[in-house]
């Protein structure tokens, strides 16, 4: 390959530097990344289509790609009664996507497998060949000309078929006839309810339950859909973003929301004030009953240690080993509310028993940023970044009034609770996940060193500032396009000024829009690239030392979104 030849990395850089705006630039990037041969796709896009000097005009390509994606499943076949009977017999009255039986509100239907049943232009045919590979693309094009049969259909719930057509569900072969069904939760928070009944990934096997030789679903159609599901999702996100126009919140809605927050806050404060008059064992019992009531009223949290309660409260549970982490979070919230205007939960109570510690706090309205950031307009994204930058200025300026003999410590002057630190150390049951406090940065840096790379160490001399320590797509809450709160402060404390930046990249790997926004937010506070290189060296070594996977594939936000908990960890690996 010559120096001027385009490979994937160079092509992605060129797209980033182009005049394409979000999400069109992201759609084109994902076309290349999801292609069968990304480097070949990059050369096709930037060299074979190049006319003259400079970068080719990408918009005609993008227009044709978007049109091709919109064709997918737009014209669906209608099976005759004989085919319907065969598919019902073959699939044994269960949904091939969810594994569920039908219901009166969500019946099973015989649905066509996703395909392109529409003629495409020569240019679009080329795009399809490059994306899928010639053989799969030919099978997809030729499918519409073949006789219809049970191989083109499957039995699915009506709601699952709709979710599939919107790109929320990807079906992928493992070894024919075995396949996986995974969720693609890209876009805004308003998602089909059927997804709540599905796990992140499920394994199934196609078989002819009738034992009469009925053809199984066409493997080539599902292979093509595995590549097309995400582009379909992004195309719908693009339409959603393009249709939005910034509008002020109606005054009645704003007033109603304010009154509700005030009443909810008063109820939470009154209830917790009364409870704090009671002895700890009785409070533990009351909160335990409240947990069960909250689970009945609002459903269980996707985190085992957080539950929404009545009266606008949340309960966060910790084991005896995690007690110091909840003490730190309680103290952090008190200090933040005293010294800043950062929207955080009100700490209402902290009580411990022999088997658990309960932290009671007020509920923050809104949803985790990960549930909405894909569908933010650029105006909303700019507001989000300005809000977060303003809050971080206040957080980093917090006065240190604890542990004068230790420069690096948690919010209440105790040991630091941070999985980045514990990842570099062998497990010690007595010490657990708590390290420090540290007299100075030199002592802190020695703790970060790994046995595998003893010569690699962070430099000293950084400013020590107050740090959240776990800013990610789960812990920043948004409502109506603005930040409504920052939650989950267990890892907070005084750390070197680069720590927030490197921890953001430590937790979230390749959600490009989030990481780019965080780079822009934190650039005001310094250039932390050299510290980032050191951190990546530590991370790679720690993962190898502890035989953990290093995430190098695309990571997308994926969770059962709920209001105010901030302890949501599910991700989906795309490749």
Write up what this structure looks like:
There is one protein chain. With 575 residues, this protein is of the alpha+beta class. The protein has four domains: 50 residues; 175 residues, no CATH class; 112 residues, 2-Layer Sandwich (Phosphorylase Kinase, domain 1), CATH 3.30.200.20; 207 residues, Aminoglycoside 3'-phosphotransferase, Chain: A, domain 2 (Alpha-Beta Complex), CATH 3.90.1200. Helices cover 42% and strands 14% of the residues. It is built from 18 helices and 19 strands. It has a four-stranded antiparallel β-sheet, sandwiched between helices. A three-stranded antiparallel β-sheet has the order 3-4-5. Strands 10-15-16 form a three-stranded antiparallel β-sheet, covered by helices on one side. Helix 1 runs antiparallel to helix 2, helix 1 packs across helix 3 and helix 16 crosses helix 18. The protein is globular and about 80 Å long. The C terminus is likely disordered.
List its salient traits.
575 residues, Phosphorylase Kinase, domain 1, 4 domains, four-stranded antiparallel beta sheet, 18 helices, Aminoglycoside_PTrfase, Aminoglycoside phosphotransferase domain-containing protein, AGP_Transferase, Kinase-like_dom_sf
What's the main sheet like?
4 strands, antiparallel
How many beta-strand runs?
19
Order the strands across the largest sheet as they lie in space: 6-7-9-8
Query: What is Rg?
Result: 27 Å
- What distance lies between the first and last C-alpha atoms, to the nearest angstrom? 25 Å
| Structural domain tally | 4
* Mean of all residue-level pLDDT scores: 86
The poorly predicted ranges are 547-575
| Percentage beta strand | 5-15%
Helix content: 40-55%
Quick one: CATH class of the largest domain? Alpha Beta
H/I helix tally: 18
Query: Any idea what the shape is?
Result: globular
Organism: Fusarium coffeatum
Protein name: Aminoglycoside phosphotransferase domain-containing protein
Domain Aminoglycoside phosphotransferase: 319-496
InterPro entries: AGP_Transferase, Aminoglycoside_PTrfase, Kinase-like_dom_sf
């Amino acid at each position: 390959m010559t120096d001027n030849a385009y490979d994937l990395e160079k092509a992605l850089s060129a797209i980033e530097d182009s005049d394409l705006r979000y999400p069109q630039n992201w759609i084109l990037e994902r076309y290349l990344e999801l292609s069968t041969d990304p480097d070949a796709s990059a050369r096709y896009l930037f060299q074979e289509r190049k006319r003259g000097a400079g970068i080719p005009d990408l918009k005609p390509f993008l227009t044709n790609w978007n049109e091709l994606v919109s064709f997918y499943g737009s014209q669906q076949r209608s099976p005759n009664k004989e085919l319907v009977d065969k598919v019902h017999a073959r699939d044994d009255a269960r949904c091939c996507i969810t594994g569920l039986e039908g219901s009166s509100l969500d019946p099973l239907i015989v649905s066509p497998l996703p395909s392109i049943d529409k003629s495409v232009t020569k240019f679009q045919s080329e795009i399809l060949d490059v994306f899928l590979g010639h053989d799969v693309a030919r099978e997809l094009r030729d499918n519409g000309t073949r006789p219809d049969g049970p191989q083109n259909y499957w039995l699915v719930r009506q709601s699952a078929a709709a979710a599939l057509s919107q790109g929320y569900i990807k079906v992928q072969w493992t070894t024919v006839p075995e396949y996986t069904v995974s969720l693609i939760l890209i876009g805004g928070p308003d998602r089909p309810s059927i997804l709540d009944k599905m796990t992140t990934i499920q394994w199934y096997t196609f078989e002819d339950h009738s034992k009469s030789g009925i053809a199984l679903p066409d493997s080539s159609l599902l292979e093509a859909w595995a590549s097309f599901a995400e582009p379909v999702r992004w195309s719908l996100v693009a339409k959603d973003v393009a249709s939005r126009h910034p509008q002020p919140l109606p005054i009645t809605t704003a007033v109603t929301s304010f009154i509700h927050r005030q009443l909810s806050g008063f109820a939470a404060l009154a209830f917790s004030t009364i409870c704090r008059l009671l002895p700890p064992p009785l409070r533990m019992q009351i909160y335990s009953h409240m947990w069960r009531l909250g689970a009945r009223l609002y459903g269980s949290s996707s985190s085992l240690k957080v539950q929404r309660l009545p009266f606008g409260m949340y309960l966060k549970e910790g084991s005896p080993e995690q007690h110091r982490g909840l003490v730190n979070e309680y103290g952090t919230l008190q200090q933040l509310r005293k010294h800043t205007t950062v929207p955080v939960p009100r700490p209402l109570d902290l009580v411990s028993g022999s088997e658990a510690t309960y932290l009671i706090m007020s509920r923050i309205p809104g949803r985790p940023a990960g549930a909405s950031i894909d569908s933010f307009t650029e105006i909303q994204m700019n507001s989000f970044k300005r809000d977060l930058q303003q809050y971080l200025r206040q957080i980093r300026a917090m006065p240190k009034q604890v542990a004068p003999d230790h420069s690096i410590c948690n919010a209440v002057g105790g040991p630091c609770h941070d999985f980045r630190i514990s990842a570099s150390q062998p497990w010690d049951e007595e010490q657990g996940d708590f390290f420090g406090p540290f007299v100075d940065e030199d002592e802190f840096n020695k703790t970060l060193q790994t046995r595998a790379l003893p010569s690699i160490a962070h430099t000293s001399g950084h400013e020590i500032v107050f740090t959240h320590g776990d800013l990610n797509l789960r812990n920043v809450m948004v409502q109506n396009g603005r930040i409504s709160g920052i939650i989950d402060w267990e890892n907070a404390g005084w750390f070197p000024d680069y720590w927030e930046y490197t921890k953001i990249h430590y937790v979230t790997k390749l959600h490009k829009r989030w990481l780019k926004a965080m780079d822009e937010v934190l650039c005001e506070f310094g250039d932390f690239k050299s510290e980032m290189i050191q951190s990546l060296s530590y991370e790679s070594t720690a993962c190898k030392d502890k035989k953990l996977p290093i995430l190098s594939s695309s990571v997308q936000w994926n969770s059962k979104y709920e209001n105010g908990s901030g302890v949501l960890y599910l991700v989906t690996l795309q490749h």
